[in-house]
Amino acid sequence: MRIALILLAVLAAATIGAAIWFRTVSMPAETWHVDPAAVTPPATPNFDLRVGERAPVFDATPDVMAARLDAIAAVEGAALIGGSLAEGHMTYIVRSRLMGYPDAVSIRLVPVGQGTRVEIFSRSRFGHSDIGVNAARVERWISTARAQTGP
C-alpha cells in the first residue's frame, strides 16, 4: 500500500511538472514563423497544411481577413509570436487547455483578384499524432471566418 501511494505521488508530481513545462516552453518566432507555401510537410501526422488549391479563398481584402483571423485566434487564446496583421503573415501559438501543449499556426494572406487566399500551416510541437486537433482548428477558423465574411 505504501509503495502504491509513493508511486501515485511520483506520478502526480511528474504530471504537474510536465504541465508546467509544456505551458512555459519557449516557441521562438525565428523557428516557428514560416511561410505556409514554403514548408515541407512534416513526416508525422500532427499538422494541417492548406496551400495552393487546398487554401480557402474569401471575398474580402487581406486587411479584413487579417483582422477577422486575429479576432478568431484571440477567442481561442492564441498569442501572436511572429509577423503582423499589416504584412498579412502571422504566426500564433495556441496551447491545449489541460496540459498546455503548444501548437504553432502560421498564416499567409495572398491577394487573389478582389479577394484573399488564406494559406495556413497548423502543427504540433510535440508528439507524433495530434488526433486531428490541428485539422479541426484550421477547419474551425476557416468556418468561422467564412461565416463572418461570406464565401
Keywords summarizing the entry:
4 helices; TATA-Binding Protein; 151 residues; six-stranded antiparallel sheet; elongated; alpha+beta
Describe the 3D structure.
With 151 residues, the protein is of the alpha+beta class. The protein has one domain: 2-Layer Sandwich (TATA-Binding Protein). The protein is 38% helix and 26% strand. It contains four helices and six strands, in the order ααββαββββα. The chain has helices spanning 2-24, 29-32, 62-75, 133-149; strands spanning 47-50, 57-58, 79-84, 89-95, 102-112, 115-124. Strands 1, 2, 3, 4, 5 and 6 form a six-stranded antiparallel sheet that branches. β4 (89-95) and β5 (102-112) form a beta hairpin. α3 (62-75) packs across α4. The model has no long low-confidence stretch (mean pLDDT 92). It comes from Roseicyclus persicicus.
Topology, please?
Layout: H1 2-24, H2 29-32, E1 47-50, E2 57-58, H3 62-75, E3 79-84, E4 89-95, E5 102-112, E6 115-124, H4 133-149
Antiparallel strand pairs: 1-6, 2-6, 3-4, 4-5, 5-6
Helix pairs in contact: 3-4
